[in-house]
Automatic annotation (TrEMBL):
InterPro entries: Ferritin-like, Ferritin-like_SF, Ferritin_actino. This is tRNA-(MS[2]IO[6]A)-hydroxylase MiaE-like protein. It comes from Kribbella rubisoli. It comes from the Bacteria. SUPFAM superfamilies: Ferritin-like.
Amino acid sequence: MEQTAFDDPAYRAAAVDLLGVLAYGELTAFERMAEDAKLAPTLNDKAELAALATTEFGHFQRLRDRLVELGVDPMDAMRPFVTPLDAFHDHTAPSDWLEGLVKAYVGDGLANDFYREIASFVDAETRALVLDVFGDSGQAEFVVDRVRAAIEEDPKLGGRLALWGRRLVGEALSQAQRIAADRDSLTALLAGSVDRPGLDLAAIGRMFTRLTEAHTARMTALGLQA
């Protein structure tokens, strides 16, 4: 029988953890967007955000199905990440519609970039799924349009939303550090092994440079200072 990466227990644990955290992240994104739709100022905005929420749920289903294919109970895979991800969302609950949009675009965008980086270290099938799930779902155009229009109408919003964007990044990085500290498998995935190269310090530095540049580009697109 042909060996696969999943024959390595350490790799299997890491891949399951990655799929588990992504699945729970998408499930909570669906829940959050559906809730934020209640704050929408117009019926059209409510429908647009509801459509994006539906897309997030579709992503959750695909990640859940991949876990099932691997013989893993998706609920068990997600459970370790409930507390840290719920804590992040509790600490970054938006106070209004615009803060909710910035969170969906900036906060989720940074997390998605990070998971795409990690996807470089998993098997081809899992990597393709992760990259597909975290491709552009149409969210960017919708959020950028609404936020820029609001700032044009009331320029004072720019300062408040810029501060909010910076706070989201700080919370997101803290959340990622907590998860990495709790789940040795994910740290090991990035560190690599004898037959599976990982990231050295220089590569880690380049990765964070890419994450920072992508975050700055999103803030600029919104008309906000990073």
